[in-house]
Amino acid sequence: MPTHLTEVASIPTSGARAVEPFDLGDRHILAVPQLAYDVPGTDANMNGGDSDTVTLLLERKGAGYVPWQTVPAPGGEDAEFFRIGDRAFLAIASIRRGSGPYQFTIDSQVFEWNGRTFESFQKFEGFAAKQWKHFEIDGQHFLALAQGVTVPGHEDENRPSVIYRWDGSSFTHFQDIDSKWAYNWHAFAVDGHQFLAHADHVQASVLYRWTGQRFQAYQNLAADHGRAFAHFERDGVTYLLVARLLGESQVMRWDGERFVTHQLLEQPGTREFAVVHDGDALFVVCVNFILGPQTSPTTALNSQLYQWRENRLEVVEEFATTGGTDAAVVHDDQGILIAVSNALSPDARFAARTVLYRFTH
Predict the structure, then answer these.
(1) What φ, ψ does residue 214 adopt, rounded to 5°?
(2) Phi and psi (nearest 5°) for 157?
(3) Residue 163 and residue 144 in contact, taking contact as beta carbons nearer than 8 Å
(4) pLDDT tens-digit profile of 133-181?
């Protein structure tokens, strides 16, 4: 296979759950929320560790990124940068705090850039939050929080996922979305429809359609084990990628009325996708997380780079990940970089590396 991904930098992180690139003036930043730190003298445990963590803000220098600032956010699962007018915000989803027993009912925060640092703007009480997603429909700004987990002893604390709407000065509650163990959102438009996909681990992942007043369930996308989504268009057709941790992920095709299965991606363990456009060519980065039980997971897996060829995705390269959680496409003056976060080491410790690859085609 030809080499499309060449490692150019490796950044020490701890339980990294996402990579979020954004610009602040002439600074190019990468936000990395961290789930946990290793606790000396304890056995490896992917559900253990010290979750009183910070989100790293790294600034691009040369071929890599260097530490710049941190944002206080325990048990970081996701970071979402967005703008409303000339204001810049960073939302961080926090799944838990403490070092055991853990507190899952905690605030997830939105921070605002004040010209020097990110300061707390608004707090949202949640339960086991996994992802924020900002999107805009008809001039309205929405911010959606995916949350929930079925943890023994915490059943009464579980909550639905929530969509908030900007009222001009803050985000206010707009709509609850049924969930048990939610992971992700994806907002996109097809044929005049505004869609919002919602991923859940223990119940169906559902595609919602904007009616002009609310988000209404439109179709199921996966029965269970949902993790993430991405979409792309080729030859006038819209395709939706549906990641599942256990079992086959899917490439779904819009047939004019609904999404139908177009292709199955057989490797299990998928956590996230990133779509790469390079001229007329289209590639998809597929990041794989773990296989096996959480008590003794296999974290050292190959993740895949696919290329769209003859109406299908074909593997053109594999690359090593260890508990891979996210991928993001970054553009610099030399071309395309791919940032990949690894949440666990090969021996299931939190101290791992976020890796930067140069993409060539």
Answers:
(1) -160, 175
(2) -90, -15
(3) yes
(4) 999 999 999 999 999 999 888 778 899 999 999 999 999 999 999 999 9
Both tokens of residue 224? 């269970």
Token pair in block for residue 343 = 């949440």
pTM: 0.97
Tokens of 333: 């003056």
The two tokens of residue 196 are 């919002």
Find, among 130, 122, 136, 139, the residue nearest to 177 by Cα. 130
pLDDT band at 246 (very low <50, low <70, confident <90, very high): very high
Q: What is the DSSP string of 178-212?
A: --SSEEEEEEEEETTEEEEEEEESSS-EEEEEE-S
In whole angstroms, what is the distance from residue 215 CA to residue 208 CA? 6
> Two tokens at 97?
């705090």
CB 353 within 8 A of CB 11: yes
Tokens, residue 348: 């299931």
Sole residue written with tokens 């970054």: 330
pLDDT at 48: 96
pLDDT attached to residue 1:
60
Strands 270-278 and 27-32: unpaired
Distances (CA, A) of 308 to 5, 223, 282, 283: 16, 26, 6, 6
